[in-house]
Specification:
mainly alpha, single chain, de novo design (two linked rop proteins), about 75% helix
Length: about 160
């Protein structure tokens, strides 16, 4: 599937959801006096989706890959901070919520890794490099794949 807007990307959506949950977590009492910790985790969480968006908008596969790895690094940073807070006694009442957020951050890291792996094997250099001839070739390939998929579904229905 080809995405036209970063807002439609599953990894971006998951990253935004995680950031919203992190911001909700940091509104809770144990974070009230932990200003630097709160700021660090909020910025890292927001950085995940922001880097996905920036890489997507750059228009080249190589730049997208770079930003996906930066985004993945931010997801790792969020996990690290959550693991740290999980060990502090002041956060003991939030342990279950923190554990769930760690799992979400891990899931986003896996999504980003899989996406990066698929891009590394792609022949497409990015939107910026698509001239009319390349666009027609990509469209033709897409139409051929859709036709074969439809034909396969038709044959299975018989």
């Amino acid at each position: 599937m080809t995405y036209e807007r970063f807002e439609d990307l599953p990894a971006w959506k998951a990253a935004i959801d995680l950031a919203v949950k992190i911001y909700a977590l940091t509104e809770k009492t144990p974070f009230r006096r932990k200003y630097s910790l709160r700021d660090q985790i909020e910025r890292a969480a927001l950085s995940i989706s922001n880097n996905i968006a920036e890489g997507f908008e750059r228009g080249t596969t190589q730049e997208l890959l770079t930003f996906l790895y930066i985004s993945r690094g931010s997801a790792g940073e969020v996990r690290s901070i959550l693991c740290f807070t999980e060990r502090l006694p002041v956060f003991k009442d939030l342990k279950s919520e923190i554990s769930n957020l760690i799992l979400e951050a891990e899931g986003i890291s896996r999504q980003l890794r899989a996406w990066a792996d698929s891009l590394q094997n792609s022949e497409i250099k990015g939107q910026r490099y698509l001239n009319e001839r390349e666009k027609k070739l990509v469209q033709s390939k897409k139409e051929r794949e859709e036709f074969l998929e439809m034909l396969g579904k038709h044959n299975r229905a018989k």
